[in-house]
Each structure stands twice: as structure tokens, then as C-alpha cells.
Amino acid sequence: QVQLVASGGGLVQAGGSLRLSCAASGRAITNYGMGWFRQAPGKERDIVATINWGGDNLYYADSVKGRFTISKDNAKNTVYLQMNSLKPEDTAVYYCAAREKYYSGTDYSGRSYHYWGQGTQVTVSS
After folding, report:
1. Which residues are 6's β-sheet partners?
2. What is the pLDDT of residue 117?
3. CA 49 vs CA 1, 37, 56: distances in Å
4. Three-class SS of residue 64?
5. Residue 88's pLDDT is what?
6. For residue range 15-42, what is the model confidence (pLDDT) as tens digits?
7. From CA 89, how far away is CA 84, in angstroms rounded?
8. By the 8 A CB rule, do 9 and 124 touch?
9. How far apart are CA 66 and CA 73, in angstroms?
10. Cα torsion at 11, 5, 51, 70 (round to 10°)?
């Protein structure tokens, strides 16, 4: 019922910043918990950050704490991932995802997120 389009990826030098956007359509993101996941070459998909439907419950993977910030603008129906102090190990395809808001708890695998964007490539050079 909700469609997601991720954008904002690109090539950046280590220490640089990018802001990813996840534009939702079809339904309001206030109906969903939202998350960012990433998958690096040869690696399994990994959770990055999540934000609940109310925007007051955030989760960050240890690897990105203090560097990344997840936020959302309900009026724009868009979720963001601000990425600062980027490292080469952040290189991955980044996916935005949504799950029905009645789900609770951190889902590290993303299997409870039933709606996914197409992904956007982030490449961090050294």
C-alpha cells in the first residue's frame, strides 16, 4: 500500500557527508515504523537505523552511532538518513523500508518490514 523511493546516494570521500531521502507515497508514513538497511558487497543485509511512527523512538546500529541521524518529515511524507563522517566501510546499497506500526521491538533482519524501496548506492572512497 505504500511505495518507497530512496535517493541521495553517491560517491563521497572518507569523512564526508551525504543525506539519503526516502519518499513515500500511497499512504502516510505515520502509519509505519521506518528503517534504513544496507547491504555491502559480499555481506548480508544489516540494519542501520529505525524510527517509529511517532518519531520519538530511534534505533542506531553501533557502527553508525554518533555519525548517522534518522529523521522524518511527516508533511513531506519523507524519511531521511543524514550520514556524517563517512567511512569506506559504509559503502553499501542503502534501502529504506516500512513496517506496520503495530510491530514492536528492533528487527535486525528487517523481515518485519514488508515494504522496501529500490535502494541507493553509497560509495565512500579512501
Report:
1. 22
2. 97
3. 22, 7, 13
4. coil
5. 98
6. 999 999 999 999 999 999 999 999 999 9
7. 13
8. no
9. 21
10. 30
Torsion from C-alpha of 113, 39, 44, 33, nearest 10 degrees: -20
Location of C-alpha cell 553517491: 10
- Number of neighbouring beta carbons within 10 Å of residue 126: 9
Q: Give the C-alpha separation, 121 to 118, whole Å.
A: 10
8 Å CB contact between 85 and 15: yes
- Specify the DSSP class assigned to residue 30: G
Report which DSSP code applies to 124.
E
One-letter amino acid identity for 108?
A: Y
Span 54-59, average pLDDT = 95
Q: Are 60 and 68 in contact (CB under 8 A)?
A: yes
For 7, list phi and psi in degrees, rounded to 5: -155, 170
Sign of CA dihedral 110, 114, 117, 119: positive
